[in-house]
């Protein structure tokens, strides 16, 4: 891995949506998805990116976290947080990619893709 980029692309009231898609590009792996937050003070962050060479598997971990500067006056409604993660790789794309989501209760698999 030579570079990672993570962007929150949208936030709105919603349900406990937790899904993702993975696409393989020219030297990049892109994960786009929706993770839910418990209230209006939550946002998403890239919790980590790891590569297991023996399994040829890239894992992209996304988690909810407190939004910086949100204060204490948060809506008590669940929010859906859309995101886009781009991982640039050198030396060939991984054979498989797993995206995990952690809403504060441990990671769960949101998507798995193979080339």
General description of the model:
By secondary structure, the chain is mostly beta strands. The chain has one domain. 0% of the residues lie in helices and 63% in strands. It has no helices and eight strands. The protein has strands spanning 3-13, 19-24, 28-37, 42-52, 57-66, 79-88, 96-102, 107-114. The strands form two sheets. Strands 1-6-3-2 form a four-stranded antiparallel beta sheet, with no helix packed on it.
Layout of secondary structure:
Blueprint: E1 3-13, E2 19-24, E3 28-37, E4 42-52, E5 57-66, E6 79-88, E7 96-102, E8 107-114
Parallel strand pairs: 5-7
Antiparallel strand pairs: 1-6, 2-3, 3-6, 4-5, 7-8
Keywords:
elongated; 4-stranded antiparallel beta sheet; mainly beta; 115 residues
Short description:
This protein is mainly beta and 115 residues long. The protein is built from no helices and eight strands.
